[in-house]
Amino acid sequence: MATALKAAVIGTGVISKEHLSFLNTSERSQLVAVCDLSKVSAQYAAQRYQAQATFADYRQMLNEVKPDVVHILTPPHTHKWIAKDCLEAGAHVICEKPITPTYEEFKELWAIAQSCDRYLIEDHNYRYNEPILAIEKLVADGTLGDVQEVEVRMALNIRSGGAFADENIPNPVHKLPAGVIHDVITHLVYLTLRFLPVEFDRISAAWSNHGGGTLFKYDDLDAVLVGGAKHARIRFSAHTLPECFDVIVRGSRGYAQTDLFQPYLRCVVPRKAGKQLSPLVNHYINGSDLVKASIGNFSRKIMQRTPYEGLQRLLDITYAALQSGNPPPITFEDMDRTSRLVEALLAEDNRV
Amino acid sequence: MKLLVTGASGFLGQYVVVEALRRGHQVRAVVRPSGDVTRYSWHDHPAVEFARVDLRRRDGLADAVQGVDAVIHLAAAKAGDFYTQFAGTVMATENLLDAMIERNVLRLVAISTFSVYDYVSMPNGTLVTENAPIESHPLERDEYAQTKLLQEQLVRDFEKTHNASVTVIRPGMVYGRDYLWNACLGAELTDTLWLRIGARATMPMTYVENCAEAIVLAVEKDAAIAQILNVVDDNLPTQRDFAKKLLKQMTVPAKLIPVNWTLMNSFTWVLLYYNRIFLKGKAKFPGIFVPAKLQARFKPLQYTNAHAKAVLEWTPKYSLDEAFERSNSNLDLLTVTPQDSPVPV
User: Fold this and answer.
1) Which residues of B fall below an 8 Å CB-CB distance to A?
2) Fewer CB within 10 A of the terminal residue: chain B, N end or C end?
3) What is the percentage of chain B residues whose pLDDT exceeds 70?
4) How confident is the model over B64-104, as pLDDT tens digits?
5) Is A84 on the interface with B (CB under 8 A)?
6) A194 and A118 both lie in a single domain
7) Which residues of B touch A163 (CB under 8 A)?
8) Which pLDDT belongs to residue B336?
9) Contact at 8 Å (CB) between A43 and A34?
10) Does A140 touch chain B (CB under 8 A)?
11) How far, in Å, are A206, A317, A318, B57, B88 from residue A168 at the CA level?
12) Residues A113 and A147 in one domain
């Protein structure tokens, strides 16, 4: 095993649990410091996940512990300047999504990373969830045929409670170009692009605030994207239940479907039984898989396996790459295309 | 005295504000910026002013603290995931204490909870006093206990580092109008179907008006400084007694499914060892299937308010029967007119 990389975390809010639990247990990393403006929050994180030091000032942390990798888990509007300082201090940066509020800022940050010869990595965690990896395999081995359509749909009940509905301390993401949807749109877009890596020449995006009021800029997105003969639909809803994160990939031979919040895999393809019996075989196999998934999901709940399982996998692969001097799995192209497509969805010309 | 009351819009907080006004204090009530203060019958009392701040943020806190003689800190988050409760309880307390230090306000009555005690280490029948052991394995407890333990530690550090005058009140289970059901009974499966775990355990209840009086007395009495005070009522009910009272006041009484305490407790230990041995301790079961959480709610223990009574020269005013009568009456329990109050001191 190569020498463990010195890792530091800036921001100890809710997502830090997922990063810190990896850093606490991985042999690829050594958690040297955590940093938060709240002293008690940093102290708690350090004690819980065995970090060696705590800081309230990240610049002081960079100077004193000289980390190899910094995880930036602060609100999105702070990412750019913190990441810049980390890169210039010689650390690779793993940054929560969205890496920057705009494509322009992403390009500036990438240029800084290039000039510092450091890697900049945005968290594209759901790409590494088991059902997504399983669909990738179905695409790769030709089971689905040529991918023609992708639909990514997230429903979150963000209007009736929780951090985004809190009027006393409005969440900083409300100020992002897409409002609270900006907090999740990175996931919707990189999953779309994962299965349809094309340039979309026609985009039609309906941004709405169905719930009204001034706190939320938007609470609904319905976007249709067309690139040549390929179609995609990106959907966010705050008004339909249950909460879900559906991904459907349709190919020229069949389709695969999952919900990343309640994982299962449904695959409808031609079966060996022939054209007439394939629908029956698909129903039988998928029904059986759904029953197994319900048992599996009960077990996942008890065993505290969350939809963040992909993050642990992504971090492990990323650290392995950084240790061996190889490029990390999330590439410039991945981030560039994602950030550019988010920008295109928000463009005035593409709105309906 | 001029008092800052955090959590003034909460269940206990409203009664504390009213008690403080009745006893002639001036109250600066901390309410969240979006809160509608006109829903409190005491909102236009001449001895009340509001500080519209959110303790999870530092903005405006120092000004809110400025010029008060003491702080009664009730604000806490009782629901949500760990990080929600951490922000609403621990970070809120950190911000409040920083503001108090900045403005040199060093008298604090901090409201903690019975949840901080280590119930697993106490044998059945133990008398729970202020010297009972504090939970040493917080991760085995719920988010509320974890965050209240961290909050108490912050308060202790504040007391020690700044030579502050601190009283820590640990109320038992606070009950009153609209809050008669209690988690120490069991679980509400539906509105009319309850699981009752155990029957003979004493419940550490404190009626909200009794508790509010003890809290205001604590801020008035110098003898309460540097003290920890457990606050429960006299003549505490058993689970069976309390359930009977609850059922009696229901128009359609709920059905009870009784579960034997010893059986339930034994089952949680079996699950605990199964988890440790076969699941590497990674499983997380619902609270009533975890020994530390189950025992914190249902273990047969004894409770005392002797220290609080002696220090505060206090006697809980209302018995269990009177508390239920008041809770179910049409009396406006939260009205205080200026005529009721002596001139603020």
Assistant:
1) 32-34, 54, 56-57, 81, 83-84, 86, 90-91, 94, 150, 154, 279, 282-285
2) C
3) 98
4) 999 999 999 999 999 999 999 999 999 999 999 999 999 99
5) no
6) no
7) 84
8) 87
9) no
10) no
11) 29, 40, 38, 10, 12
12) no
Residues A96 and A210 placed together within one structural domain of the fold: no
Task: Label residues A165-196 b or e (16+ Cβ within 10 Å = b).
Answer: bbeeeebebbebbbbbbbbbbbbbbbbbbbbb
CATH number of the domain enclosing A39: 3.40.50.720
| Omega before residue A98 within 30° of 0, cis | yes
Q: Which of A251-255, B209-213, B251-255, B258-262 has the lowest mean pLDDT?
A: B251-255
Q: Inform me whether the pLDDT recorded for B344 exceeds 60.
A: no
CA distance readout (Å), A174 to A158, A215, A302, B237: 12, 7, 34, 49
On chain B, the residues whose CB falls within 8 A of the CB of A302 are 283-285
Give the integer Cα–Cα distance in Å for A302 and A307.
13
CA dist., res. A139 & res. B30, Å (int): 58
- Whether pLDDT at B345 is above 50: no
Closest residue on chain A to B34 (Cα): A168
CB contact under 8 A, B90 and A44: yes
Of A317-331, B36-50, B152-166, B328-342, the range with the lowest mean pLDDT is: B328-342
For all residues of chain A together, what is the average pLDDT? 97
Is residue A272 domain-resident? Answer: no
Judge if A74 and A112 occupy the same domain. yes
Which residue reads 């026609």 in tokens?
A202
Structural domain harbouring A86: 5-122
Identify whether residues A42 and A135 lie together within a single domain: no
Based on the fold, state whether residues A116 and A131 are members of the same structural domain.
no
Q: How many CB atoms lie within 10 A of CB A90?
A: 13
Block means of pLDDT (10 residues each) for chain A, length 352 residues?
Answer: 92 97 97 98 98 98 98 97 98 98 97 98 98 98 98 96 92 96 98 97 98 96 97 98 97 98 97 95 97 96 94 98 96 98 97 96
Instruction: Among A63, A88, A122, identify where a domain stops.
Output: A122
Q: Which ipTM value was assigned to this complex?
A: 0.92
pLDDT at A29: 97
Same structural domain, A148 and A212 = yes
Answer whether residue A56 is part of any domain.
Answer: yes
Nearest to A169 among B56, B81, B282 (CB): B56
Q: Is there a contact between B91 and A38 if contact means CB atoms under 8 Å apart?
A: yes
Residue of chain B with shortest Cα separation from A301: B284
Q: Which of A40, A47, A215 to mutate to test the interface with B (most CBs of B within 10 A)?
A: A40
Higher pLDDT, B316 or B253: B316
Q: pLDDT by residue (tens digit) across B121-133? A: 999 999 999 999 9
Whether residue A311 lies inside any domain: the answer is no
Residues 6+ apart with CB under 8 A from A255: A144, A248, A249, A267, A268, A269
Single residue among A122, A139, A165 that ends a domain in this structure? A122
Number of domains chain A is built from: 2
Tokens of A303: 């065993």
CATH code for the domain of A203: 3.30.360.10
Listed in sequence order, the residues at least 6 apart from A336 whose beta carbon sits closer than 8 Å to its beta carbon are A106, A107, A110
**Co-location of A117 and A157 in the same domain:** no
Contact A44 B84 (CB under 8 A): no
In a domain, A316, yes or no: no
pLDDT of residue A1: 65
Residues 6+ away with beta carbon under 8 Å from B251:
none
